[in-house]
Amino acid sequence: MSTPASPTHSPAHIRVSVVVPVFNPGDSFDDLIASLDRQTLDHARFELLLCDDGSDDATRARLAEVERTRSYARVLYLPHSGWPGTPRNEGVAAARGDYVQFVDQDDWLFDEALERMCDFADQHGADVLVGKEVGIGRALPTRIYRRDVPDARLGRDPLLEMLTPHKMFRTAFLREKRVRFPDGKVRLEDHLFVMRAYFEASRISILASTPCYAWVKQPGSASSARIDPESYYPHLEAVLDLVDEYTQPGPLRDRLLRHWFRGKILKRLAGKRFVKYPASYRERLLDVVAPLARRRFGPGVDGGLAFPHRIRAALLRADRRADLLAFARFEHELECRVAVTSASWSRGGGLHLGVRVDISRDGQDALVIDGESGRLTSLPVPMDGLPTGLLETGRELRNDRVELVTGDAGDQRVLASARLRDGRTATLALDPLRVFGRGDDSRGVRIVAKVRRAGWTFDVPLTSDTATLAGAGHSPFLAGRTCAPVATRGGAVELRRVFPRGRLKDLAGRAARRVRRRTRRG
Question: Is 273 exposed, middle or buried (0-12, 13-18, 19+ CB in 10 A)?
């Protein structure tokens, strides 16, 4: 293990080297450069290494102009390798900073990113600093960014949720431990690099309180393309070999392996995705992943899977291909509807909504679960010959819940959350002063319901009829601006408010709540 050290800085000392592999970038590259121009970290304290992977003449001229007009920029002109690993390695070799921050050419950094990440890494002696990533046009995991974690641990903290290379690494650590990207075209090269760094690091820190990295979804990106099973999964096995090398058989190894079993295999066999594959592609995929599942993922890995994935894993190991497809069709045909059954305002300013969740297939209740055994009885797929208890939902029912959210993919906010009663009903409270924040100038928000039922998840519009919402009446004083839940022509629920008038009502509502809280505490 390396010994973390907090660097000392002279006035001209470079704190971080931003390493960007470049190959014929588009217009979004300008957004990256502009974000570096805006960094609050003194421009003399960081450097930009543009590692050009044999781009065309127009790109080289573009990079030369960036280097000419910015004192912090350097261009490394490299032979074409066709993959980002080698340019990143060359960037690490040339780096003069205490840390290396990898950034892709289509992404950008938030203004305070470099300063805050360097300070946090220095403060906690981190070999690896995971700065908060924000999805632009893409949804990202959220558990990893719930709070700052100065000393994160594999198996305890959700580090595997984000295995992108968009992180900050102590330069001396990478060199001392010889942590490198594989050269050439290697799939999952970021997983190999990041996992090796995680295993070798003395300290990993998560900076969740500051948005650092904007991960931008680009049309036609590699992550959205269909994989070639025969070439892809040997690269996955290299990642699994790395896990085996650094861990002993047992709970930690199972927990780590579960991440790739679920994300790289089982999710590809689920619902609409699997159903829509051409039959020939499904056969090719199963020819590769069925023996892989039997060879690399034991019963301990299945133990932490969600209920639907446990069924899928058992069918996969048994090579029950027709049943796997039938199960995916069952999932694809599930329809979820969340409807408001009651609406009322509380004196404290909250909008209380009673909701009912219905999950159906062909017009019938799709998830029928026996109240005593917790066994799913409505699955139209034979389970004979598979492990006993496979249809027992177990812990999943305790996690059944519904959330009301707003926002686009990658930038959703949870407005309210409640457990499902009997798998069907819940009561949730919306606070308008939180739905519409202080700087929010919108007149209304559409509300989406996120449902978790027996391990399945659904994102659907919250719906209602006009009469049910009208029963709530006028919003009270403590709700701030006058607002009301409204059903659109299609039945989707929106919370609308008077705007721009009503600012004084918001201020008065917040002030009255503060007085009310102090009175209650007294």
Answer: middle
Instruction: In whole angstroms, give the CA distance from residue 389 to residue 470.
Output: 47
pLDDT digits (tens, 9 = 90+) for 77-114: 999 999 999 999 999 999 999 999 999 999 999 999 99
Task: Tell me the average pLDDT across 459-481.
Answer: 91
Q: Which helix (H) or strand (E) holds 307?
A: helix 307-317
Cα 322 to Cα 340: distance, rounded to the nearest angstrom: 39
Is 25's pLDDT higher than 60?
yes
pTM: predicted TM-score of the whole model, two decimal places? 0.87
- Alpha carbons within 13 A on the beta-carbon side of 222: 10
Looking at residue 376, the DSSP 8-state letter turns out to be B
The CA–CA distances, whole Å, from 389 to 289, 311, 314, 377, 386 equal 24, 10, 11, 12, 9
**Cβ neighbours of residue 256 under 8 Å, at least 6 residues apart?**
154, 155, 160, 243, 247
Q: What is the DSSP string of 318-373?
A: TT-HHHHHHHHHHHHT-EEEEEEEEEEE-TTS-EEEEEEEEEEETTEES--B-TTT
Q: How far apart are CA 327 and CA 193, in angstroms?
A: 36
Strand partners, 17: 47, 100
